[in-house]
Amino acid sequence: MPDVIGILFLARGDADEDDINYCFDPLSIYFEEVECKDPAALQNVRGISPTSRVFFSSRVLMLPFIEVRQAKQEDHDDLADVFNNQSETVTEAYGEYFLAELIAAQNSDNKALVAQVKDKAVGLMGLTNEVDTSLLHQCFELDQYDCLLKPDFMDAIRKRREYLVWKAEVDAEQKRIEFLKQMKQETLRVNKVAQRIVLQEYMIERAEDIYKEIEEWTGDEEKIKGLTREIVDG
């Protein structure tokens, strides 16, 4: 759109007049007919009827030239109409004279710019270098804008964030391995205790037989000499 100067509309002379009126009438207030300097020249234009007409619509009719300047107190009434026509929420939230206060509060850190069309203010932009970035981070997703930080600084933050995520994963995996190791040791310990309990119960149940067999072995020296590991395990 910045490169568009205007729009030309060709009303072909050989076209049906009703069709032209149906298509062109809704837009006709934005077009002016261009005077033909040499009607005879159309006689030599191939594919164009000599009775054709050309209409032109200037960009200014649709998008008037806008002047941007610093806001003044005199702009208040024009800007109030613009804001109130859009929504009354701003006025209800900040008060009836918030525009006047915004304009009056301009200094080296805060500026207010006005868009003006034909001596009438039609838009306002407030600029400041006192930005509460922490509040913006809470309200909006700013990661794609480097969180409003300098790119180099944000790259360092992202690398640090990636390292912390990696470190957390490594620590979590290490804790998991340690937990499994402790579980294995505890299981072995419990198994040993269980085996001892079973062994004790077995020996208590067969105490008389065990004592009798021990006495048989201890009372016969020849039999003890022939005692082997296989016999004990059996």
Instruction: Label the overall shape.
Output: elongated
Q: List SSEs in N-to-C order.
A: EHEEHEHHHEEHHHHH
The largest β sheet comes out as:
3 strands, antiparallel
pLDDT < 50 runs, ≥5 residues: none
Tell me the distance between the termini: 101 Å
What's the helical proportion of residues?
40-55%
- Average the pLDDT over all residues and give the rounded result: 82
SS-based structural class?
A: alpha+beta
The rounded Rg comes to 47 Å
| Biggest sheet strand line-up | 1-3-2
How many helical stretches? 10
Taken as a percent bin, the fraction of beta residues is 5-15%
Strand segment count: 6
Counting structural domains, the number is 3
Report on the architecture of this protein.
With 234 residues, the chain is α+β, with helices and mostly antiparallel strands. 51% of the residues lie in helices and 15% in strands. It has helices at 17-24, 59-62, 76-86, 89-94, 98-104, 133-139, 151-205, 207-218, 221-225, 229-233, and strands at 6-11, 32-33, 53-58, 67-70, 110-117, 120-128. A three-stranded antiparallel β-sheet has the order 1-3-2. The chain has a three-stranded antiparallel β-sheet with strand order 4-5-6, with helices on one face. It is elongated, with a radius of gyration of 47 Å.
